[in-house]
Design brief:
The chain is an alpha/beta fold. The protein contains 12 helices and 17 strands. The strands form 3 sheets. Strands 1, 2, 5, 6, 7, 9, 10, 11, 12, 14, 16 and 17 form a 12-stranded mixed beta sheet that branches.
């Protein structure tokens, strides 16, 4: 693929709104996870809840789009001058030449949950609008209107890889001439369906998640929103680049990863191949690292099969929780911050490394020499995506 410049980026997570909050938390090794206090969820687990999300007001013109997912999208859009960056892009190319590719796994399902609790005489309440809240295109519909874009727009929903795969969608659309730039990203908000669904699968941890730990007990579910403005690297200002994207499908099981990590390894290999690089060119791997026994084992085998045991790697879900459909964009932003600050974050909460896992997992931060970062996101059903990001002068 031709390199894409990331002209602006932002992420809002459980540690706060915007990149500065995320960077400070990474640097201070301060987690955003808390005991589950989500309204209506009586579960012994920890979550990554975005502070103040439920207090966000949407612009009055779009009041019928009100749902937690769009509140989170609105909060994320307001950070790091992102809206201004899109306005600048619209002066360079017409709004119909800027694409929009967003990922989510649940969209505004929390609003549908509330609507079903208010069913009377077999009818949903009059205030409920499936089209503007829960429909999978609702997120794109809201953001498209909010940013004044008119180019190609689509929602990717491939579980946890959703907002990583949007980078591939943008690259293909720009290369094909459908658009000149694109806004990519993802938003997933907490809801009862997600919390109880993962609990029913016995995948939620009763303590903060501990990736790669010998006694890891599952995931900590989080919520997040993030966006990036991407376009051709030629002529772009200094900043991070997406230089490779790899996708694969396990075709193994509805939920469990392929045990040897063959699909994950294929996604990483394709990202390297699309950039024309060997594994030794990667300075840091941001692992998918959900802290379930099966995921960490499969990913470890995949990483070791390609990179051996020398490349530094860490899992960052101890800060944010597993943000599901937003995980790809959040961890792409973390990759950008790692490059910008020349810093490899540690893996929070991990105390006793699983002796059966062999990749070089960082339990303390490691500065220096971060020029190329591989970011992994692997979704339910084996929908895998790996992004390769680099500093502009690599």
């Amino acid at each position: 693929m031709k390199p894409m410049a990331i002209r602006a980026y932002t992420a809002t997570t459980a540690v706060g709104a915007g990149c500065d909050a995320l960077w400070q938390a990474l640097r201070e090794q301060r987690s955003g996870l808390v005991p589950c206090d989500f309204d209506g969820a009586d579960l012994a687990t920890w979550i990554g809840r975005v502070p103040g999300c439920e207090d966000v007001a949407l612009p009055a013109a779009w009041s019928d789009w009100h749902c937690r997912n769009h509140q989170l999208a609105e909060l994320a859009l307001q950070q790091d001058g992102f809206i201004d960056a899109v306005e600048t892009a619209k002066r360079v190319c017409a709004p119909e030449r800027i694409g929009l590719f967003l990922g989510t796994s649940t969209s505004g399902i929390g609003t549908t949950e509330r609507a079903y609790r208010e069913v009377a005489d077999g009818r949903l309440p009059a205030w409920f609008s499936f089209e503007h809240t829960h429909d999978y295109f609702a997120l794109c519909g809201y953001v498209q209107r909010r940013l004044g874009l008119a180019g190609p727009a689509l929602t990717v929903s491939t579980a946890c890889s959703s907002s990583a795969k949007v980078f591939a969608s943008a690259a293909r659309s720009i290369e094909a001439g459908f658009c000149d730039m694109a806004v990519v990203g993802g938003v997933d908000s907490l809801c009862l369906t997600t919390l109880y669904g993962f609990a029913s699968l016995q995948l939620t941890s009763p303590e903060p998640c501990r990736p790669w730990d010998a006694h890891r007990r599952g995931i900590s579910i989080g919520e997040a929103g993030g966006f990036a403005l991407v376009g051709p690297a030629a002529g772009a200002a200094p900043g991070p680049r997406v230089i490779g994207v790899g996708e694969s499908a396990d075709a193994y099981h509805m939920a469990a990863p392929e045990p040897e990590g063959r699909g994950a390894a294929l996604a990483m290999r394709r990202a390297l191949d699309s950039a024309g690089l060997a594994p030794g060119a990667v300075d840091y791997i941001n692992l998918h690292g959900t802290a379930t026994p099966a995921n960490d084992q499969a990913e470890d085998r995949a990483v070791v099969s390609l990179f051996g045991t020398a490349t530094p790697a860490s899992a960052t879900k101890g800060w944010t929780g597993h943000t599901l459909g937003a995980a790809g964009i959040v961890e792409a932003v973390i990759a950008c911050l790692a490059i910008a600050h020349d810093y490899r974050p540690a893996t929070l909460n991990t105390q006793d490394l699983d002796p059966a896992l062999r990749c070089r997992l960082l339990t303390a931060p490691e500065p220096g020499g971060v020029r190329r970062v591989l970011s992994n996101t692997f979704g339910f059903g084996g929908s895998n995506c790996s992004l390769l990001l680099a500093a502009e002068d690599v």
